[in-house]
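As a warm-up, study this chain.
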Amino acid sequence: MTTPNEHEGGYPPDDASEIAELEALLALPSGPEAVGESIADATLSGADANTLDQGRAASPSVEVAGGEVGDEDDEYEDDDAPGGVLALLDGLRSLTGRAPSVARREVDQATSWLGSNWVLIPLYPLIAVVLAPYGAGLLAQRHWTWVWDLDYKTHRAERRKAARAAGEDAEIRKDYAALLRARWFATVGLSLAGFVGALLFIQFTPWWATWAALFALVGSMGGYGIARAPWLAKATGRKAKAPTITIPFVTEALATLGISPEPSKRGLPGLEILGMRTLRGGVEVLVDLPPGKTAEDVVKLRNRLASALRRQKGCVWPSGDTEVHEARLVLFISDKPLHKRDAVKWKHAKSGATNVFEPIALAEDVRHRDVTATLMFNSGIIGAVPRMGKTLALRTIGMAMALDPRVEIHAYDLKATGDLDSLGPIAHALRVGDSTDDMKFIRDDLKRLVEDRARRAATIRGLSVKEKKITSDIADQHELGLHPIGILIDECHIAFTDATYGKEIAALCEDLVKRGPATGIMLWLATQEPNNDMIPASISRACTYRWCLMVMDWRANDVVLGNGAHAAGFAANNFTTNDKGLAYFRGEGESPALVRGAYIDIPTSEKIVERALIARTEGGWLSGMAAGEIAADDDRSTILHHLIAVWPENDPAWPNGKVWSEVLAERLAEHKPTLYDGWNATQVNSAARRHGVKARDVKGRHNGTEGTRKGLVRAEIVTELGTDTTTED
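Now compare it with the structure written out below.
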């Protein structure tokens, strides 16, 4: 089997018999009704189901990963498509719908080439004039190939071979003849229309417009010839063009994986390619695999499939369509790897509001379609190694919540870098830092939310409604207090493993993630250490949305995406450091979808929050810190500052500058009882170690007891603080 070459014209040697065989069938019918029927047959025939013109019934949106993927107009037709001339017009509409995608790809390729050969640009006008006939010939050849459906000759021969065994060969020949008849009809019609249009243009426009149109035509033909001239590509160092994606080429590629198009010895069918279409950013191929094969079998071998297709792995994205059956494969081959695309712009960045009860765009899939999620009644977990876009994803969730003025936002930035500070003007609670008092604040805030969850449950129980659940209309009513609550915790593993409050914080989060969604509480956790030691399994298993960027191994992958995800081929550990922002996004009960998250930088997020603040102020939805009800988190002091406050430089009881930690625990408890009441030496040492100060063996005497115990050195605390002038107040 050979791959068609778009640069070689004419018929293959064995075409003659097939075309002669069809000549008798190609006679156009005489009556208009017969013409309509022929065109309908050509458009709806099974033979045409394997061409670029084939489509599927349009649907406004498709469920992906618990959310929806929409905005796809160029769909495959079904058997209910209009017949006659309407079918031809519908086919032309599909063709014109694809034109922008094809044109965009051609422009991208030409721009890339010109950028690397700009020194030769002054010579290109002359080259374009010389190569204009060559370009026109190539276009004519491509049209001739399309009219006779030569790209799919091999595939059609295989179908005829199988049909001949079943006695259906004549039907396929008839369908193919109808297809060619319709294409010739379109060719002749468009040619006549173009000829008449050209005559009218020449007759009724100034001479300079005619010459301008002629120059544009010659330039276009020449440009096409330049872009397609293999000898010129070699001379200028232009990269060779990847093989054209055709159905025979894809069939060959799948055959290298052991998936044959030939029927088995027991008579079971081989793989069948149902259709191919050009989408924005690439080509999609629809395949039915042989019995016993599943789409997951292909997903696991994506690197081998990319090799067979002569593409980068980042350009080849196989997935399944389980709504049809397990053997349905949807293969998307993109023009460029996802990480080389422009950043995804968030749809609500400049205008518009959100509603957490409805799907909200958070990302884009490989087909440039919006990936949406309904935040209400769901919690989520985001996992990735550092610097791969984890906090950006959490920020996008925060912005989606911000633009719904009813959402009460509680944000805890344990990375302490200020990535969530833009939420400050509207947040009910915002805490930045990982000190002991930060952990206590988070513990206390979560306690209040758990108490409010119980109140909410009682309120819902007392509602006189058909179904005991919060609706958007119910959330609008201030007096009920059932507005949505969103909790964002960045680097949540720090909170869960805190020596003092970790277990308590984990227990509170477990309560909120399990029973909170039913009462309108949404919890989103982000971590760079997705494992069962850092995030309790009882919490991660209850998160319905999973967002996994690059991780280091399959264990971390499955903690985020769920058990078996890696074995099924959804392996975020295969991402590289170039794949920032790429993730597998999984919803409840759905297979993960490959997405690229929307990019919202800090200045953009601040502008979004400005809009959100106006909406919340007008609607009376400000609360907590944003409304001045809770003191803002302006205290940046840590336990080191508190120790210095209770430890004078010339301590008469400890003149050597070293004090037992148990003595320091007593002083801290007396100085700040709300923070340190009940602390012991171990807790003081653990908290100090997190800020770079280690416990030492200290000899001393206290309350009549003398010995060597663990303690701290004041000079080391001073050194660690350096020039930090922050005070405990």
